[in-house]
Amino acid sequence: MIKLRVFKSLVSTIFIFIIAILIIPPVLYADSDNEILLSMAEDIISPLNPKKLKFVGNTLSWNAPTKNTDGSTLEDLAGYKVYFGTESKKYTASYEVKNVTTYNIDNLPEGQYYFAVTAYDKSGNESRYSKEISIKISINKMPSKYTLTVNKGGIYTGIVTSSPEGINCGPDCDEIYYSGIVIKLIAIPDTNSFFSGWSGGGCSGTGQCILTINTDTIVTATFNAEVKEEIKKESPQPQTPSGEPSGVIFTVQGGAFRNAPYAKAFETWLKEKGYSAYITLSESKEGEKLYKVYIGKFTEKEEAKTLSEKIRNSEGIQTFVTSLQP
After folding, report:
1. Chain mean position to CA 270
2. pLDDT tens digit sequence for 243-300
3. 118: pLDDT confidence band, cut at 50, 70 and 90?
4. Residue 134 to residues 54, 55, 82, 227: CA-CA distances in angstroms?
5. What DSSP state is assigned to residue 228?
6. Hey, is 246 helix, strand or coil?
7. Domain 51-137 class in CATH
8. Are 325 and 256 in contact (CB under 8 A)?
9. What is the CA radius of gyration of the chain?
10. Of the CATH numbers 2.60.40.1140, 3.40.50.300, 3.60.21.10, 3.30.70.2470, which one belongs to the domain with range 145-225?
């Protein structure tokens, strides 16, 4: 009787095993194509939490975890969740971000906010919160705007331009700029006029006008007629029987211009530097006028050479020594 019972029990076990093989899904078979799904279903190990949260402007960033909580390598990181609220460790909102390590904080009302980040893997296992970080969000006020106006004075004309652009006076003599902007104004005289200088806005002299906009500002650029009485026409130097000029005066030539206002502006700049500059007018064989700018008059050539070298070294101007009739 006992043997019969053992035999029936063995038959029942074999039958149940055969039925199990026929009805259990293939996912349970080792070495099948679904082995990965089985592995995923059994994954209960969470990633470590993100580290080193910081804000740069309105961008939150962090370092990605590389390990799981059991010390194994994290190979299936899927993304992050950013949690925040207005009280420490009491997060009332969260955003799920892709597998990136930055998040832009936009459109939040003014106030103090606390943030933490978690990481999660492809099985949905989520890490613990990162170390909390806080930031105070305030509504940035746009800087004030002020108007820069350029007036032109004097009896002659020219144009004034600006950097950054906006003034082209000419037709456009005022522009609105944000507070704190540094503006450079440049005056360019028309033919037969020269730039006399700036006034207003803290500017003076005949160089560039550089000012910082902090209030409505008016700057005047003055243009006047070319001062022709300061331009002396060169004449041939008398020759001695030996062919050498008599009563030679040595000078330093700093430049030669076809345009008289440019020569005048260069002369004015040299005078502001402390040099005794002056202009002479000469003509080429073709009848072309040249306005030459000279510095100093010397009876000894070596003195002129010394001045020429000084100007080249200190001002970066290519000069040379020449001679004039006294």
Report:
1. 34
2. 444 567 889 988 887 777 777 778 887 888 888 888 888 776 666 777 888 998 888 8
3. very high
4. 9, 9, 13, 68
5. G
6. coil
7. mainly beta
8. no
9. 43
10. 2.60.40.1140
